[in-house]
């Protein structure tokens, strides 16, 4: 392998995707420059986001030594529930134990994105082959036949040029690389946004488990448990079109939504909230020459089913394998087209299809359709064969197996 500064991968963004990719490459001897706009001072101040890690993702975290750091900070959750809020009853309980012969991790790990990036960042800082640039803004890039040049603004405010063999956008949904390449981000944006309320209250005493999807024709929700400190639960609600951010953040409005969901006869202790716009979009291309998109820069989706961060991490490992083979001279650049074929297929046929269907299921208004959906979920959860097939898909193991079949 050539050992000159330009023989490296430039990764933009130290989110879960950029960090996993950098670690997977560096651990195989490939040098990486990892560029992140946030600094040591504010890196851990990011708003709460994704946090459910599916079995397929846990297998990948394990590959880079991350799983063992995350497990003690998370909650092992073998079960998840579907509830009917309208009828106030449990519809179906799914048990990942059905996957015990399919994966060494027959459960999800409830562990928030912030803990994942914190632990992965420690590994990245300790790795001699990762040139980590915090407090550094990536602003533009150029590519030629032999390599790429990224323009960055360093912490002193000076503009620098950085050379590499490939550049990967782990920048998230607002990717500059995607825009510079003129790649369309096809899809749509929901008119309702998602309100996340973080609450210090143990919902298990009402029969809920660590992960719950709750259907309701008027106001569906998701309910997730995160380990502390402080130990807390996140409730997702859809916003209504006329509700402004200012209004939604008022403590009495948050309290009313929570009491409407579950009246507990006293005030909930609210520890935080955030509101975000939900898009369903996939980039028309994941690769153009030496520039490659991964994670939210390539696809975004609703959080119902916890597929955004998970499928982004899967992109990172798929791409790492292709780049490792290219750097070792075992594959040509064409391997990157296979990355695009495999991961665009998953983004469209799994992540988009399933998250759109999940939302429709929770928000369904027609009583007859709701009844039919619930009957089917119940039947599936109670039949071990059907339950396993359902869980193989929801845990994203199917999506990885299917992608492996794509040449
Ligand atoms: C507000 C919000 C709430 C969310 N909530 C949920 C949820 O509840 N459940 C769920 O499943 N998913 C949720 N998501 C989605 C989930 O967080 C993402 O799918 C996941 O984080 C994607 O990882 P990523 O590494 O691709 O990008 P990101 O996590 O967005 O990371 C991108 C990184 O790149 C850095 N960066 C960006 N531009 C530049 C630049 N020009 N120069 C240098 N650095 C740059 C950023 O600072 C950041 O660290 C949420 C997303 C948002 C925005």
The average pLDDT is 95
**Rg estimate, integer Å:** 21 Å
Task: Name the strands of the widest sheet in spatial order.
Answer: 6-5-15-16-17-14-18
Helix content: 25-40%
Distance between the termini: 26 Å
Written account of the structure:
With 407 residues, the chain is of the alpha+beta class. The chain is built from twelve helices and 22 strands. The strands form five sheets. A seven-stranded mixed beta sheet has the order 6-5-15-16-17-14-18. A six-stranded mixed beta sheet has the order 8-2-1-12-21-20. It has a three-stranded antiparallel beta sheet with strand order 3-7-4. It is globular and about 65 Å long. The structure holds flavin-adenine dinucleotide. Flavin-adenine dinucleotide (FAD) is lined by residues 12-18, 35-38, 47, 49-50, 113, 137-138, 170-172, 176, 196, 274, 276, 295-296, 303, 306, 308-309, 312.
Short characterization:
This protein has helices at 16-26, 55-63, 67-70, 113-126, 176-180, 245-248, 251-261, 308-327, 334-363, 367-382, 384-394, 397-404; strands at 9-12, 32-35, 52-53, 75-77, 79-84, 89-95, 108-110, 130-133, 137-143, 148-153, 159-164, 166-169, 185-189, 194-199, 211-215, 221-226, 232-238, 270-276, 279-283, 287-288, 291-293, 299-300. The chain is an alpha+beta fold and 407 residues long.
Question: Characteristics of this structure?
Answer:
single chain, 407 residues, alpha+beta, 6-stranded mixed sheet, 22 strands, binds flavin-adenine dinucleotide
Question: Which helices and strands, and how do they pair?
Answer:
Elements: E1 9-12, H1 16-26, E2 32-35, E3 52-53, H2 55-63, H3 67-70, E4 75-77, E5 79-84, E6 89-95, E7 108-110, H4 113-126, E8 130-133, E9 137-143, E10 148-153, E11 159-164, E12 166-169, H5 176-180, E13 185-189, E14 194-199, E15 211-215, E16 221-226, E17 232-238, H6 245-248, H7 251-261, E18 270-276, E19 279-283, E20 287-288, E21 291-293, E22 299-300, H8 308-327, H9 334-363, H10 367-382, H11 384-394, H12 397-404
Parallel strand pairs: 1-2, 1-12, 2-8, 5-15, 12-21
Antiparallel strand pairs: 3-7, 4-7, 5-6, 9-10, 10-11, 13-19, 14-17, 14-18, 15-16, 16-17, 19-22, 20-21
The chain binds flavin-adenine dinucleotide (FAD).
Flavin-adenine dinucleotide (FAD) binds next to helix 1, strand 9, strand 18 and helix 8.
């Amino acid at each position: 392998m050539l050992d000159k500064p330009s023989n490296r991968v430039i990764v933009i963004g130290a989110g879960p995707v950029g960090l996993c990719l950098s670690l997977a490459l560096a651990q195989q001897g490939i040098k990486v420059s990892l560029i992140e706009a946030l600094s040591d001072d504010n890196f851990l101040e990011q708003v709460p986001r994704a946090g459910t890690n599916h079995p397929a993702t846990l297998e990948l975290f394990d590959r880079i030594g991350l799983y063992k750091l995350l497990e003690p900070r998370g909650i092992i959750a073998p079960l998840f529930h579907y509830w009917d809020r309208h009828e106030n009853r449990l519809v179906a309980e799914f048990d990942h134990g059905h996957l015990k012969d399919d994966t060494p991790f027959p459960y999800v790990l409830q562990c928030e994105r912030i803990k994942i990036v914190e632990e992965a960042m420690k590994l990245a800082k300790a790795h001699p082959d990762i040139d980590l640039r915090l407090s550094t803004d990536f602003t533009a890039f150029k590519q030629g036949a032999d390599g790429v040049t990224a323009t960055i603004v360093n912490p002193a405010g000076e503009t620098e040029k950085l050379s590499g063999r490939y550049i990967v956008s782990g920048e998230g949904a607002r990717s500059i690389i995607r825009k510079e390449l003129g790649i369309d981000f096809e899809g749509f944006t929901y008119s309702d946004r998602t309100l996340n309320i973080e609450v210090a209250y143990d919902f298990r005493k009402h029969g809920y488990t660590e992960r719950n999807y709750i259907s309701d024709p008027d106001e569906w929700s998701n309910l997730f448990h995160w380990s502390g400190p402080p130990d807390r639960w996140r409730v997702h609600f859809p916003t209504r079109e006329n509700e402004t951010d200012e209004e939604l953040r008022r403590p009495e409005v948050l309290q009313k939504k929570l009491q409407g969901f579950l009246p507990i006869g006293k005030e909930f202790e609210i520890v935080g909230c955030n509101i975000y716009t939900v898009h369903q979009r996939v980039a028309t291309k994941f690769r153009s020459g030496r520039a490659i998109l991964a994670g939210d820069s390539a696809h975004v989706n609703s959080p119902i089913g916890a597929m955004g961060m998970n499928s982004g991490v899967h992109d990172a490992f798929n791409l790492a394998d292709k780049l490792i083979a290219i750097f070792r001279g075992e594959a040509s650049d064409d391997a990157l087209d296979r990355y695009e074929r495999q991961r665009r297929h998953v983004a469209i046929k799994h992540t988009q299809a399933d998250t759109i269907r999940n939302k429709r299921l929770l928000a369904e208004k027609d009583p007859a359709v709701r009844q039919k959906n619930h009957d089917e979920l119940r039947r599936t959860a109670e039949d071990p064969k059907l339950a396993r097939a359902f869980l193989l898909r929801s845990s994203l193991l199917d999506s990885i197996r299917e992608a492996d079949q794509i040449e």
